[in-house]
Design a protein that fits this description.
alpha/beta; eight-stranded mixed beta sheet; 13 strands; three-stranded antiparallel beta sheet; Rossmann fold
């Protein structure tokens, strides 16, 4: 049961609580972490520039055969923008299967997801996702079609990572709130678990270039580098598991 201090940030949906989404100056905002969910330039544009381009997703998808499978892991489902935009790009690029796993400790209500994605071009796909997403469960596998699936882990990041097989992930999307707001998401134990679940030559991308994040990823074993950033961010981070 949430404490009194947390109730202002939450709303009850049946037998469980979800995070109350707040809008400030046209941007979705988390009172839990005192941070915005995406850059002012737009969630889909950020997903495309940072995570899809940062991991060379389209070229890698096009190199796969129809019987191949590709695994992406995201820390911080948030509004689901990265997942939705990746599904669009994937379905236009390949017939291979995409298995997308995302971790989220503080889910939103379906109505908030719908409000955030009024401009998403495939509303039927969005509605199918929301109909199948059961937030009462800590681990849900959703088959959206024969090509696309989402494993949604509604849990603390370390617990969720412990449920993922070693050496199984091709790509990492690191998209938690800022480390100054949510240091646990970027901690060394989390980075070490990310390294464990990643395949050799797995790639990562994140908008965050904080020195502690770079240090923790490097200490965990990743080779990381700063590259040109998106929108008002001068730099972003990419990396690889050697």
């Amino acid at each position: 049961m949430p404490t009194t201090a947390h109730r202002a940030w939450l709303k009850r949906i049946g037998s469980y609580f979800v995070t109350q989404l707040i809008w400030r100056d046209g941007l979705p905002y988390s009172e839990t972490y005192d941070d915005i969910y995406h850059a002012r330039a737009g969630a889909y544009a950020q997903a495309e520039a940072v995570f899809i381009s940062g991991n060379d997703i389209i070229a890698r998808a096009q190199a796969l055969g129809p019987d191949d499978e590709f695994q992406i892991l995201e820390t911080g489902f948030g509004l689901g923008s990265n997942f939705l935009q990746t599904c669009l790009a994937w379905s236009h690029s390949t017939q291979a299967r995409l298995c997308f796993t995302s971790i989220e400790k503080h889910p939103l209500a379906s109505s908030d997801y719908q409000q955030a994605h009024q401009l998403f071009p495939n509303q039927d796909f969005l509605n199918s996702l929301l109909e199948k997403l059961d937030l009462r469960l800590t681990d849900t596998l959703i088959h959206l079609n024969s090509q696309l699936s989402l494993r949604y882990l509604h849990a603390d990041v370390l617990w969720a990572l412990s449920k993922i097989s070693s050496g199984s992930i091709d790509v990492l999307y690191l998209d938690g709130f800022a480390p100054s707001k949510n240091p646990h998401m970027w901690s060394l134990p989390v980075c070490q678990e990310l390294f464990r679940v990643a395949k050799p030559q797995a790639s990562l991308a994140t908008w965050c270039v904080a020195s502690l994040v770079r240090q923790n990823l490097s200490e965990a074993g990743f080779v990381v580098q700063k590259v040109a950033g998106f929108a008002d961010k001068k730099e972003m981070l990419t990396g690889i598991k050697p």
